[in-house]
Amino acid sequence: MKKKISFSAQGQRADIGEMIIYRILPNRYADAVGPFVFLDHFAPIKDSPDQSRTKQGTGAHPHRGIATLTYVLKGEGEHFDSQGNHAKVYSGGIQWMKAGNGILHDERAIPDTQTGDPYMHGFQFWINLPSQVKKENPEYLTVDANEVPIANLEDNRGWLKVIVGQYKNLVSKIPTYTKQFLYHIQVNAGKTVSFPAEKGMEYAIFLPQHHATVNNTSFHAGDFIAFDTQEGTIEITNAPDTAADILLFGGEPYTEPIVAHGPFVMNSLLEIAEAYQDFHANKYGKINYQAEEHKNN
Amino acid sequence: MYDKLFNYIEQYAGLPLTETDRQIIQEVFVPMKLRKKQYFLQEGEVCKYMAFIVKGATRQYTVDDKGAEHMVQLAIENWWISDRESFTMLTPTIYNIDAWEDCELLTTTKADATRLAHIPAAVQALREMDINHAIAMQKRVSSAIAMTAEQRYAQLVESNPTFLQRFPQHMIASYLGMTKETLSRIRMKASGK
Q1: What are the pLDDT digits (tens) for A90-133?
Q2: Contact by Cβ (8 Å): A160, A185
C-alpha cells in the first residue's frame, strides 16, 4: 500500500544578502521530520562580481543543541569555527558540525574553483540532538563528494546518495544518534522508484528543482511533501523529459520537548535563556580567521 | 520609570498586571540612559539588548560606502529599539542605533526576556506588538516601492506627525527615501495649500 501524504507546502523566502533562500522547514504544518528541524534551500544562483554579499554569508554566529549539515550541490563552501576547524568542501560535498554544548561558526560560499561552474546551489539542515548529546563537546567533519556512498538503482532508474544514515549496506560517515536518513536521489527521465517506509518513522520529500509524481499525486519544483507514519511505500515517478533530483529524509520521531529560538534548539526555555546568556558571556570561544587561514595555506 | 512600560503592556494586552508580574518585569528590564549621539548599537556588533523608550528619540540607520546614512527606523517614546535579527540570531548587525535626544530606556536581553513567558499580559502584549510591527513594516515596504514622494510624506504626516517635530529635515528625508530638496519642496507645497 502506498503511504498517505499528510500535507505539502512551498518554502518561505528567507534571503541572506544576495542569496535566494527558501525556508522549507519548519513550516506552518511541521516543526520537525524525525530529527530534522530546519531546512534552507539555497536556490541556484549565478555569481557575478558585484554580488559581493554572497561571499560574506551571515557572519559568525553560535549554535547549540543541534548538528548543522550543509550539502553543497554546486559551489565551494568554506567553514571556520571557534574550535579551530577551517575547511572547504566542493560540489557534491558535505559539512557536518555537531554544535553540542556550543560553538561559533562562519560559513562562506563561492563558485567552485575546481570546476569553474559559476552556479552555487545547496542545502542546510539542522539535525536535532538527543538531550544528553546536546551537552557534549562540538565536533566537525567534512565528507568530500567522492566519499559519499552511492547506489545505482536497478533497471537504469537512477542513483541514490547516502548523505546521512544507511541505505542497504551503504553507510554515511556522518555520525547519527537516533535512527535517521537523508538521501539524495536522482530519478532518470520517465522512471519510477519505490521505497518501503517503516511504520513509526517520519518521512518527507523535497523537490528542489523538478516536478514529480509522488504516490499518484503530482507536485511542483519547490514542494515539500510530508507523509503519515503508517507503513507503506513511497513511489516517485519522474516526468519523461529530464532526470529529477529528490531529497528523501526523516527518521524516528524526536520525543523530547523542542524549544527553538534563533540559532539554538534545546529542550526547555530555561536552556534557551542559558544559551543566550553564555553567548554574551563569551563562552562559545572565538574564531581566529587569520590563524586558521594561515594553518591551511 | 516603569509605569510607562506597565501601562504599555496592560493597554496592548487588555489584561492587568499583578504585583508579582510587575516585580518580575522590574527584574527583567534594566534602566539605561543615553546622551544625544551616544550609540545603542554599532554596525558589526551583536545586538545584546532590546529596549523600550521611556523618554527620548533614537534613529536606526545603515551607512553606505560613501558614508551616507540611510534611516531605517526613527523611534520615540513607547517604541522599541533593537536589531531583531541580530538580537535573536546573534549575527553581527549591519545597523547603527543612536540617540537623537537624551534617552531613558528600559533594556532587556534575550535570556532575561524568556521570563516574560510566565506573565500572560506580557505574552499577549508582545504578540500584539509583533503584529503591529509586521503591519508597520509592510506599510513601509509598500510605500517605499509603490508610492510617490508626496504620498510617502502624506502617510508620515498622518501616521507619525510628531516625527516632524522631533527629527530634522534631512533625517526625515532619508527615512522617506528622498532628498532633502524634494522633502522641502513637498512641505512648501503642502503648507501653501
Answers
A1: 999 999 999 999 999 999 889 999 999 999 999 999 999 999 99
A2: yes
- Cβ pairs bridging A and B (under 8 Å): 42
- In chain B, the residue whose alpha carbon lies closest to the alpha carbon of A107 is B91
Q: Which residues contact A72 (CB under 8 A, 6 or more apart)?
A: A89, A90, A91, A92, A93, A94, A95, A109, A121, A122
For A62, the closest of B90, B92, B115 (CB atoms) is B90
Which of the four CATH numbers 3.40.462.20, 3.40.50.1010, 2.60.120.10, 3.40.30.10 does domain A7-295 have?
2.60.120.10
Q: For chain A, give every domain's residue range.
A: 7-295
B64: three-class secondary structure by DSSP: coil
Q: What is the pTM of this model?
A: 0.88
Tell if the CB–CB gap between A59 and B110 is shorter than 8 Å.
Answer: no
ipTM of the complex as predicted? 0.85
What is the tens place of the pLDDT at every residue in A171-184?
A: 999 999 999 999 99
The model's pLDDT over B59-111, given as tens digits with 9 standing for 90+, comes to 999 999 999 999 999 999 999 999 999 999 999 999 999 999 999 999 999 99
